[in-house]
Design goal:
The chain is mainly α. It has 2 domains: 32-53 and 63-114 and 130-170, no CATH class; 184-389, Isoleucyl-tRNA Synthetase, Domain 1 (Orthogonal Bundle), CATH 1.10.730.10. It has helices spanning 2-9, 14-20, 33-47, 73-80, 96-112, 143-156, 184-203, 210-229, 254-277, 297-307, 310-318, 334-353, 362-388, and strands at residues 67-72, 91-95, 134-139, 165-170, 173-175, 237-239. Strands 1-2 form a two-stranded antiparallel ribbon. The two termini are 24 Å apart.
Length: 397
């Protein structure tokens, strides 16, 4: 989810918004190790070969104020045979701020080291050490600066991990007719207020207890995630801050997905209470059911369009391309959102048309049990897909 949100929210107030949206984004702590890391990078800058990196020594005094060295990025790219970088990259004036950024990247990598025995066997790296792939998630307007940081890192810290850098570039996030620039925290609070007002309109005045606040927070997080992630990350998003699609009514919104997930929870809760009252017998295991009772077109649609292809959808959404020449990669971050929205529309149509919990007559139980097993699988798909977006399923709205 950070693929779209982080570049859009790297402004004032972003840390609190990321927390509220349940985004765990790797970053350095900025703690006591930072000065040592910056000092080590300064030393590496001083040792860098002059023909590929740093012009220091007697000429340093002529550098502009705040600049601690020059790095020849273009010659480095040519010597290393790197492809995909902006051809306008040339000489970089290195500042201490850049070194602090690199120190933070180094610390984030140390916190996130992983070893993939398939794609990245430990034997591939010196000493058999673990490594991780580094993906720079960056707004298209800042891609050039991030490439500079990438190359500076390769020069000053030529370890195995810096060789695995890739860039995932996101299109810009624009706002229609903005009266003034809007900060991330303002955007979040606006959507939260709209979600509360839409919920009051649909369900009446809401109790101000912790449970309702959690529901509104989850609906707001879902609305924002779907609003930003339903579009391919390479494309521009235009936010209409007055758009009613953020409400509980819009069929293409995150709130609509959460609403249908809650309908399933309510259905199974109602069935369980009826079982406890003795109205229905307990749900038998799937192996003992007669699924030929499922004859509705909507039931086959749920099976063939959603249950069976779901593993494929996850693979398409989560699997980045294999390493190749060039630095840009793509990720199908919109796949799960679009899948959930379409599933919600087709499930809602079926659920509005079919009465699942029928009269408690034994001759109707076979069909009811088969439908409950089918919808139990649909519920599992909802939960699994929402989990990939770090959204908890709601049991009621």
């Amino acid at each position: 989810v950070g693929v779209r949100l982080v570049p859009a929210l790297t402004r004032e107030g972003s840390s609190e918004v990321l927390r509220q949206l349940r985004i765990d984004w790797p970053s350095g702590s900025g703690g006591s190790s930072f000065p040592e890391a910056v000092s080590a990078l300064k030393a590496a800058l001083g040792r860098a070969p002059c023909n590929t990196a740093c012009e220091q020594g007697p000429g340093t005094a002529t550098l502009p104020e705040g600049v601690i060295g020059k790095v020849h990025l273009k010659s480095f790219v040519e010597q290393q045979g790197l492809v995909g970088y902006d051809p306008n990259l040339d000489v970089l004036l290195v500042t201490e701020g850049m070194l602090r950024s690199l120190a933070e990247l180094q610390q984030a990598v140390q916190q996130c080291l992983v070893s993939d025995p398939v794609a990245l066997p430990a034997s591939h790296f010196p000493g058999g050490s673990s490594c991780c792939s580094i993906i720079h998630v960056v707004n298209c307007e800042e891609e050039f600066q991030q490439q500079q940081l990438d190359l500076l890192w390769r020069i000053l810290d030529p370890g195995a991990h810096t060789a695995l850098q890739k860039h995932l570039v996101c299109g810009p996030v624009k706002v229609t007719n903005p009266s003034s620039p809007i900060r991330a925290d303002q955007y979040f609070q606006l959507r939260k207020r709209q979600m509360y007002e839409a919920s009051v309109m649909k369900y009446g005045e809401l109790a101000q207890d912790e449970a309702w606040r959690e529901v509104i927070d989850t609906l707001t997080a879902a609305a924002i995630r779907f609003e930003m992630l339903s579009t391919a990350h390479r494309s521009q998003i235009t936010l209409d801050l007055e758009n009613s699609s953020i409400s509980t009514k819009g069929t293409k919104s995150g709130a609509f997905v959460m609403y249908n997930c809650a309908r399933l929870a309510t259905l199974f809760d109602s069935f369980q209470r009826a079982v406890e009252r003795g109205t229905y017998p307990p749900l038998p295991p799937a192996s003992g059911l007669n699924f030929s009772c499922l004859r509705e077109e909507g039931e086959w649609l749920l099976l063939f369009n959603y249950l069976l292809p779901f593993p494929e959808v996850l693979e398409q959404a989560a699997q980045l391309p294999t390493p190749s020449k060039g630095i840009r990669i793509t990720a199908n971050t919109e796949t799960v959102c679009k899948f959930l929205i379409q599933l919600s529309m087709d499930f809602s149509s079926y659920y509005n048309r079919v009465h699942v919990l029928g009269e408690p007559f034994p001759h109707l139980f076979d069909q009811m049990f088969a439908r409950l097993r089918l919808l139990g699988a649909v519920r599992d798909v909802f939960h699994s897909a929402l989990a990939t977006l770090h959204l908890p399923p709601l049991s009621q709205i």
